[in-house]
Amino acid sequence: MVNLKPWKKTTIGAQVTLQRGIDITKAEQRHGSVPVISSGGVSSYHDQAAVNGPGVILGRKGVVGSVYYCPVDYWPHDTTLWVKDFHGNEPRFVYYFFKNYAPELARLDVGSANPTLNRNHVHPKKTLWPPLSEQHAIARVLSSLDDKVELNRRMNTTLEAMAQAIFKSWFVDFDPVRAKMEGREPAGMDAETAALFPDGFERMDGQEVPEGWKIGSLTTVVEVLGGGTPKTTVDEYWDGQIPWFSVVDAPNLSDVFVIDTEKKITEFGLNNSSAQILPVGTTIITARGTVGKIALVAVPMAMNQSCYGLSGKDGYGPFFTYFLTRDAVSILKQNTHGSVFDTITRQTLNDAHVIIPTKGACGAFEKQVEHLLKRIESNLFESRTLAALRDTLLPKLISGEVRVSSELKKSK
Questions:
Q1: Which of 21, 32, 23 minimizes the C-alpha distance to 55?
Q2: Is the model's pTM score more than 0.85?
Q3: 3-state secondary structure of 136
Q4: Which helix (H) or strand (E) holds 80?
Q5: Could you give the C-alpha distances from 55 to 10, 34, 76, 83, in angstroms and in order?
Q6: Burial 166-182 (b: 16+ CB within 10 A, else e)
Q7: How far apart are CA 310 and CA 64, in angstroms?
Q8: Cα(29)–Cα(195) distance, rounded to whole angstroms?
Q9: What is the pLDDT of residues 157-171, one digit of tens each?
């Protein structure tokens, strides 16, 4: 049995004082850098803080059970509860305590039509509470994992921006072509790669296009794949091992890849629907309702029928296909069909015309950005592993089932 001395039996209200957030409308907000935190997270920014950071914020209305940590001064929205007094406790520990307590917070919902959390129902709840030295140690263990996940996120943003900048320079602004026209060597490009670009333009369909390149349908360079949904009433089709992509799984643009999905199907479900396994490197685009969300497949997966898979044809690789599709999203959105839902159809994809470089230039682009995209992918898998470790450790550390070492308690 774990010895929890000198942990003490107490109540949440004896350790932290919660306060209802402060109302502020969009009209009252002014441009600034102070985060306004609502029950759904950072909702906007203002030029004035209402509370000094660091802070811990709980969803009070609308989203009950959400928990946020803010290291800087902030404005807690009326839809939240915020920690007004930490009573000398470690703020990061308090944050992790409430993260672990989130399911119980959700069960304390007192709303009828709209979920609502009452602080007077939280304060009396009994709990075990560690001494300050152990709070610091627990916070260090968990925050080290979260900090690495955040570092990976920022790194991915930078890496994606670099890859996007290369695509734009080569295939949108045509910088290598313009440099050669002016008798300059294309910046940051070796002679072998520079030789793949022409030194002039020609007019084609009213546009200026590098010599030897073409204008054609998006489907000239990509194969279009369809998706499907197994019957939701058949249990044997669901909760399997095959990732099944829908719009909720679309990653942030900076993450590029989708490495997991909210729902999974079985082999039985796959074989009894129009769903098919998409190979790694396929670009997925959402095509109905919420259109234009894209992702690059990092593991074999299926997708629903509201999406298309786009696979580059011979000589046009997966990274070029992804960025070409991303660049064409605005055109696709302008030409959606449907009276109730915006819909990208196969005809929409066929009617979307893009500038098509030579296969040589596209191949050089694949090589140029491969290390950037592979690092993004690696970071995503690492972050998933770190998040899983954090989620495993969180309840064990907060409950005292796993104790931190005495050395870590002493360290600062």
A1: 21
A2: yes
A3: helix
A4: strand 80-85
A5: 22, 13, 9, 7
A6: bbebbbeebbbbbbbee
A7: 39
A8: 53
A9: 999 999 999 999 999
